[in-house]
Amino acid sequence: MESADDWRFDIQHIGAQTRFLREVLTNYNLVIAYLENDLKSWPAWRKKYGSDPIPEMVATIRGIFDGYPLEIVLSGHSGGGSWIFGYLNSVEVIPNDIVRITFLDSNYAYDPALRHKAKLLTWLRAADSHFLCVLAYNDAVALLNGKTFVSASGGTWGRSHAMQKDLAAEMEFTSKTNADSLTLLSALNGRVQFLLKDNPEKKILHTVQVELNGFIQSILSGTTNEAKGYEYFAPRAYSQWVK
Q1: Which residue range forms the structural domain that includes residue 164?
Q2: What is the pLDDT averaged over residues 120-134?
Q3: Rg (CA), the chain
Q4: Nearest Cα to 230, choosing from 10, 5, 3, 13?
Q5: Measuring CA to CA, how many Å separate 35 from each of 41, 85, 189?
Q6: Could you give the angle at which helices 156-168 and 116-126 cross, rounded to 10 degrees?
Q7: Tell me, what's the pLDDT at 8?
Q8: Quick check: 214 pLDDT over 90?
Q9: Could you tell me if residue 242 is inside a domain?
Q10: Digit-coded pLDDT (tens) for 154-185
Q11: Does residue 243 form part of some domain?
Q12: Structural domain count, the chain
Protein backbone atom coordinates (compact mmCIF):
# COMPACT_ATOMS: atom_id res chain seq x y z
CA MET A 1 0.00 0.00 0.00
CA GLU A 2 1.07 3.55 -0.77
CA SER A 3 -0.08 6.33 1.54
CA ALA A 4 -2.42 7.80 -1.09
CA ASP A 5 -4.04 4.47 -2.04
CA ASP A 6 -7.69 3.84 -1.33
CA TRP A 7 -8.16 1.34 1.51
CA ARG A 8 -9.94 -1.01 -0.91
CA PHE A 9 -6.58 -1.87 -2.46
CA ASP A 10 -5.71 -3.71 0.74
CA ILE A 11 -8.71 -6.02 1.09
CA GLN A 12 -9.34 -9.66 0.14
CA HIS A 13 -6.09 -10.24 -1.83
CA ILE A 14 -7.37 -13.19 -3.85
CA GLY A 15 -4.11 -13.12 -5.84
CA ALA A 16 -1.95 -13.50 -2.73
CA GLN A 17 -4.25 -16.13 -1.24
CA THR A 18 -4.01 -18.04 -4.53
CA ARG A 19 -0.20 -17.91 -4.35
CA PHE A 20 -0.42 -19.33 -0.82
CA LEU A 21 -2.62 -22.13 -2.13
CA ARG A 22 -0.17 -22.89 -4.93
CA GLU A 23 2.48 -23.54 -2.30
CA VAL A 24 0.14 -26.11 -0.71
CA LEU A 25 -1.58 -27.75 -3.68
CA THR A 26 1.57 -28.68 -5.57
CA ASN A 27 -0.15 -31.46 -7.53
CA TYR A 28 -2.42 -28.94 -9.28
CA ASN A 29 -2.05 -26.04 -11.67
CA LEU A 30 -4.35 -23.64 -9.82
CA VAL A 31 -5.99 -21.05 -12.09
CA ILE A 32 -8.44 -18.32 -11.06
CA ALA A 33 -11.00 -17.16 -13.63
CA TYR A 34 -12.24 -13.89 -12.13
CA LEU A 35 -15.57 -12.87 -13.68
CA GLU A 36 -16.89 -9.31 -13.90
CA ASN A 37 -19.79 -7.60 -15.65
CA ASP A 38 -20.40 -4.05 -16.80
CA LEU A 39 -23.21 -3.55 -14.26
CA LYS A 40 -20.67 -4.21 -11.46
CA SER A 41 -23.21 -6.48 -9.73
CA TRP A 42 -24.19 -10.07 -10.44
CA PRO A 43 -27.68 -9.66 -8.90
CA ALA A 44 -28.26 -6.66 -11.18
CA TRP A 45 -26.86 -8.57 -14.15
CA ARG A 46 -29.12 -11.56 -13.50
CA LYS A 47 -32.11 -9.27 -13.13
CA LYS A 48 -31.38 -7.88 -16.61
CA TYR A 49 -30.24 -11.02 -18.43
CA GLY A 50 -31.53 -13.95 -16.37
CA SER A 51 -29.58 -17.07 -15.43
CA ASP A 52 -29.57 -19.01 -18.71
CA PRO A 53 -26.30 -17.53 -20.11
CA ILE A 54 -24.27 -18.56 -17.04
CA PRO A 55 -23.60 -22.23 -17.96
CA GLU A 56 -22.15 -20.98 -21.26
CA MET A 57 -19.68 -18.86 -19.27
CA VAL A 58 -18.56 -21.99 -17.44
CA ALA A 59 -18.34 -23.90 -20.74
CA THR A 60 -16.20 -21.12 -22.22
CA ILE A 61 -13.78 -21.33 -19.30
CA ARG A 62 -13.70 -25.12 -19.62
CA GLY A 63 -12.80 -24.69 -23.28
CA ILE A 64 -9.66 -22.71 -22.44
CA PHE A 65 -8.28 -25.90 -20.88
CA ASP A 66 -9.52 -28.36 -23.48
CA GLY A 67 -7.37 -31.47 -23.44
CA TYR A 68 -6.35 -31.11 -19.81
CA PRO A 69 -7.86 -32.98 -16.86
CA LEU A 70 -9.94 -30.33 -15.16
CA GLU A 71 -11.62 -29.81 -11.81
CA ILE A 72 -13.79 -26.74 -11.28
CA VAL A 73 -14.58 -24.72 -8.16
CA LEU A 74 -17.48 -22.27 -8.16
CA SER A 75 -16.68 -19.56 -5.64
CA GLY A 76 -18.28 -16.19 -4.99
CA HIS A 77 -18.18 -13.38 -2.46
CA SER A 78 -21.14 -11.08 -1.83
CA GLY A 79 -23.20 -10.75 -5.03
CA GLY A 80 -21.01 -13.42 -6.61
CA GLY A 81 -23.21 -15.93 -4.83
CA SER A 82 -26.06 -14.80 -7.08
CA TRP A 83 -24.00 -15.94 -10.06
CA ILE A 84 -23.56 -19.39 -8.48
CA PHE A 85 -27.26 -19.75 -7.77
CA GLY A 86 -27.96 -18.55 -11.32
CA TYR A 87 -25.81 -21.44 -12.51
CA LEU A 88 -27.72 -23.89 -10.30
CA ASN A 89 -31.00 -22.53 -11.64
CA SER A 90 -29.87 -23.22 -15.20
CA VAL A 91 -28.63 -26.81 -14.91
CA GLU A 92 -30.68 -29.87 -14.12
CA VAL A 93 -27.72 -31.64 -12.51
CA ILE A 94 -24.46 -30.12 -11.24
CA PRO A 95 -21.68 -31.72 -13.34
CA ASN A 96 -19.23 -34.05 -11.63
CA ASP A 97 -16.21 -31.98 -12.68
CA ILE A 98 -17.44 -29.22 -10.37
CA VAL A 99 -15.73 -30.52 -7.24
CA ARG A 100 -16.29 -27.62 -4.87
CA ILE A 101 -18.85 -24.87 -4.35
CA THR A 102 -18.04 -22.09 -1.90
CA PHE A 103 -20.12 -19.17 -0.68
CA LEU A 104 -17.99 -16.45 0.94
CA ASP A 105 -20.74 -14.50 2.71
CA SER A 106 -22.74 -14.74 -0.48
CA ASN A 107 -25.69 -17.14 -0.23
CA TYR A 108 -28.43 -14.48 -0.08
CA ALA A 109 -30.26 -16.11 -3.01
CA TYR A 110 -30.58 -19.58 -1.48
CA ASP A 111 -34.11 -20.86 -2.05
CA PRO A 112 -35.16 -24.50 -1.66
CA ALA A 113 -38.24 -23.72 -3.79
CA LEU A 114 -35.82 -23.28 -6.71
CA ARG A 115 -34.45 -26.78 -5.99
CA HIS A 116 -31.15 -25.48 -4.64
CA LYS A 117 -31.28 -27.94 -1.74
CA ALA A 118 -32.19 -30.86 -3.99
CA LYS A 119 -29.49 -30.12 -6.56
CA LEU A 120 -26.78 -29.63 -3.91
CA LEU A 121 -27.77 -32.88 -2.17
CA THR A 122 -27.67 -34.87 -5.40
CA TRP A 123 -24.27 -33.40 -6.24
CA LEU A 124 -22.83 -34.01 -2.76
CA ARG A 125 -23.99 -37.63 -2.83
CA ALA A 126 -22.63 -38.23 -6.32
CA ALA A 127 -18.95 -38.33 -5.31
CA ASP A 128 -16.75 -38.11 -2.23
CA SER A 129 -14.72 -35.49 -4.10
CA HIS A 130 -17.53 -32.93 -3.90
CA PHE A 131 -17.21 -30.25 -1.21
CA LEU A 132 -19.45 -27.40 -0.02
CA CYS A 133 -18.11 -24.54 2.12
CA VAL A 134 -20.24 -21.66 3.44
CA LEU A 135 -18.79 -18.67 5.33
CA ALA A 136 -21.13 -16.19 7.03
CA TYR A 137 -21.33 -13.82 9.96
CA ASN A 138 -24.23 -12.42 11.95
CA ASP A 139 -25.06 -9.58 9.60
CA ALA A 140 -28.56 -9.28 11.08
CA VAL A 141 -27.15 -7.36 14.05
CA ALA A 142 -24.41 -5.46 12.18
CA LEU A 143 -24.82 -1.69 12.20
CA LEU A 144 -24.22 0.82 9.42
CA ASN A 145 -24.50 4.43 10.64
CA GLY A 146 -26.17 3.07 13.76
CA LYS A 147 -28.82 1.07 11.90
CA THR A 148 -29.21 -2.55 10.81
CA PHE A 149 -29.25 -3.09 7.05
CA VAL A 150 -30.40 -6.69 6.45
CA SER A 151 -33.29 -8.65 7.87
CA ALA A 152 -32.84 -11.61 10.20
CA SER A 153 -33.86 -14.02 7.45
CA GLY A 154 -32.59 -12.23 4.35
CA GLY A 155 -28.90 -11.79 5.17
CA THR A 156 -26.27 -14.49 4.90
CA TRP A 157 -26.68 -15.31 8.61
CA GLY A 158 -30.34 -16.15 8.10
CA ARG A 159 -29.87 -17.85 4.73
CA SER A 160 -26.95 -19.93 6.02
CA HIS A 161 -28.96 -21.18 8.98
CA ALA A 162 -31.86 -22.02 6.67
CA MET A 163 -29.53 -23.77 4.22
CA GLN A 164 -27.81 -25.76 6.95
CA LYS A 165 -31.13 -26.73 8.52
CA ASP A 166 -32.39 -28.00 5.17
CA LEU A 167 -29.27 -30.11 4.65
CA ALA A 168 -29.36 -31.34 8.28
CA ALA A 169 -32.69 -33.00 7.50
CA GLU A 170 -30.72 -35.27 5.13
CA MET A 171 -27.33 -35.65 6.84
CA GLU A 172 -25.87 -35.54 10.34
CA PHE A 173 -23.96 -32.45 11.41
CA THR A 174 -21.56 -31.93 14.30
CA SER A 175 -21.15 -28.52 15.93
CA LYS A 176 -18.14 -26.87 17.55
CA THR A 177 -17.71 -23.27 18.72
CA ASN A 178 -14.32 -21.75 19.54
CA ALA A 179 -13.38 -18.94 21.92
CA ASP A 180 -13.81 -16.33 19.17
CA SER A 181 -17.52 -17.16 18.71
CA LEU A 182 -16.88 -18.99 15.44
CA THR A 183 -19.10 -22.04 15.04
CA LEU A 184 -18.21 -24.89 12.68
CA LEU A 185 -21.12 -27.04 11.54
CA SER A 186 -19.73 -30.02 9.65
CA ALA A 187 -21.12 -33.06 7.84
CA LEU A 188 -19.97 -35.85 5.49
CA ASN A 189 -16.54 -36.10 7.16
CA GLY A 190 -15.93 -32.39 6.66
CA ARG A 191 -16.97 -32.24 3.01
CA VAL A 192 -19.81 -29.92 4.04
CA GLN A 193 -18.87 -27.01 6.27
CA PHE A 194 -20.71 -23.97 7.54
CA LEU A 195 -18.40 -21.53 9.36
CA LEU A 196 -20.64 -19.04 11.14
CA LYS A 197 -19.15 -16.08 13.02
CA ASP A 198 -21.20 -14.49 15.78
CA ASN A 199 -21.03 -10.71 15.99
CA PRO A 200 -21.39 -9.40 19.55
CA GLU A 201 -19.70 -6.11 18.60
CA LYS A 202 -22.19 -5.57 15.72
CA LYS A 203 -19.41 -4.93 13.20
CA ILE A 204 -19.59 -5.22 9.42
CA LEU A 205 -17.43 -8.26 8.65
CA HIS A 206 -18.55 -8.84 5.08
CA THR A 207 -15.13 -8.36 3.48
CA VAL A 208 -13.08 -9.15 6.60
CA GLN A 209 -14.17 -12.79 6.32
CA VAL A 210 -12.38 -13.04 2.98
CA GLU A 211 -9.34 -11.04 4.11
CA LEU A 212 -8.74 -13.23 7.17
CA ASN A 213 -7.78 -16.27 5.09
CA GLY A 214 -11.36 -16.89 3.99
CA PHE A 215 -10.57 -17.78 0.39
CA ILE A 216 -7.84 -20.17 1.53
CA GLN A 217 -10.27 -21.80 3.96
CA SER A 218 -12.94 -22.14 1.30
CA ILE A 219 -10.58 -24.08 -0.98
CA LEU A 220 -8.97 -26.31 1.68
CA SER A 221 -11.98 -27.03 3.93
CA GLY A 222 -12.49 -30.70 4.63
CA THR A 223 -9.09 -31.73 3.24
CA THR A 224 -5.88 -32.87 4.91
CA ASN A 225 -4.43 -29.38 4.27
CA GLU A 226 -7.12 -27.54 6.22
CA ALA A 227 -5.68 -25.24 8.93
CA LYS A 228 -2.07 -26.06 7.97
CA GLY A 229 -0.04 -22.86 7.91
CA TYR A 230 -3.10 -20.67 8.38
CA GLU A 231 -6.21 -20.25 10.49
CA TYR A 232 -9.56 -18.96 9.33
CA PHE A 233 -10.58 -15.60 10.83
CA ALA A 234 -7.04 -15.08 12.10
CA PRO A 235 -4.18 -12.84 10.90
CA ARG A 236 -3.28 -13.03 7.23
CA ALA A 237 -1.20 -16.07 6.33
CA TYR A 238 -0.44 -14.80 2.82
CA SER A 239 1.25 -11.45 3.41
CA GLN A 240 4.52 -12.50 1.78
CA TRP A 241 2.64 -13.18 -1.47
CA VAL A 242 1.03 -9.73 -1.74
CA LYS A 243 2.37 -8.05 -4.88
Answers
A1: 7-237
A2: 98
A3: 18
A4: 13
A5: 11, 15, 31
A6: 60
A7: 85
A8: yes
A9: no
A10: 999 999 999 999 999 999 999 999 988 999 99
A11: no
A12: 1
